[in-house]
Design brief:
By secondary structure, the chain is α/β, with parallel strands linked by helices. Helices cover 57% and strands 10% of the residues.
Length: 304
């Protein structure tokens, strides 16, 4: 039995070794590259833009609020490394009309050249219990978080395939890896990004990348990890111990970009699953306690 397990492990390592050159893309050079960042007026998006700008990229910021875009532009421009760098701002609602999104992306490419990397950061959350949320909230979040990434990705992918160069980054969250109480509208929209990324990576483009971030980290830390993994072409990008564990647990049929990554997932899966079961049990207990406390509080209010 041990010999069979050892033989399987050796065969697995050899298989990864043979296919790894096919799935490991060349690093992307950021100096002079055109990077489009949606949701780039604040948070992770703005930090990603700053990180890319520090490395010599040309930036197109896309967001709805024009005032915030102009403020972000001024902040980003402080980090330039040469006089040729440009920050272009585009105010548009990415979730409303694909043709409009396609047109503004074309305008950006006419000014700054073909898009080398697209970072989809635009998104929002509406928390609440399933029965308390309006149906319109589910429609809105799916439109903004999912279609708001589909539209710009669709607008740049043809040129990327023609040039055989490109990175498409989908910024997800832990709620896009595990269902969480109060996020019945938000989690599905982020789960959808994972499915899109896995399907897209099978198409003949040099690489795609889904970035799975952890909410306990600062935007600056997340941005640095996103840019680092995007340059290398890693499919999964996680930050922190909990982010790493979730990425391993939810890897499923996702591709790997190195032998080490594949082996780590195989070796740690069982242990991480045991830890995850304790997490899930803890989450359930917290929800039950909160519901009991809320019921007692409501009962006290009625009798007062």
């Amino acid at each position: 039995m041990l010999l069979l397990a050892a033989a399987f492990l050796v065969a697995f390592v050899l298989l990864l070794y043979m296919v790894s050159p096919l799935i490991s893309p060349k690093p992307l050079a950021l100096p002079g590259a055109h990077v489009v960042v949606t949701g780039g007026s604040s948070g992770i998006g703005k930090c990603v833009a700053i990180e890319c700008y520090k490395q010599g990229a040309f930036i197109t910021l896309v967001a709805r609020n024009e005032d915030k875009l102009l403020q972000a532009k001024k902040e980003i421009e402080k980090h330039s490394i040469n006089d040729k760098q440009v920050v272009l701002c585009i105010s548009v609602d990415l979730s409303q009309d694909y043709n409009h999104v396609e047109n503004v992306i074309k305008q950006a490419q006419e000014k700054l050249g073909p898009v080398d990397m697209l970072v989809n950061c635009a998104g929002m959350s509406i928390p609440g219990k399933f029965e308390d949320l309006e149906v319109s909230s589910f429609e809105r979040l799916m439109s903004i978080n999912y279609l708001g990434s589909v539209y710009p990705s669709r607008a740049v992918i043809t040129t990327m395939k023609e040039r055989r160069v490109g990175r498409i980054v989908f910024v997800s969250s832990q709620a896009g890896q595990v269902g969480l109480f109060g996020y019945t509208a938000y989690s599905p929209s982020k789960f959808a990004l994972r499915g899109l990324a896995e399907a897209l990576q099978m198409e003949p483009l040099e690489t795609r990348l889904i970035s799975e971030t952890t909410s306990v980290c600062k935007p600056e830390q997340v941005a640095k990890q996103i840019v680092k993994d995007a340059i290398q072409g890693n499919f999964n990008s996680s930050l922190g111990s909990d982010g790493y564990m979730l990425s391993s647990l939810t890897c499923g049929m996702a591709p790997v970009t190195s032998i080490t990554e594949g082996l780590q997932q195989v070796v740690t899966m069982g242990l991480f699953r045991i830890i995850a079961l304790f997490y899930l049990g803890s989450f359930d207990n917290i929800v039950r306690r909160c519901m009991v406390q809320r019921a007692k509080s409501e009962g006290a209010d009625k009798t007062a």
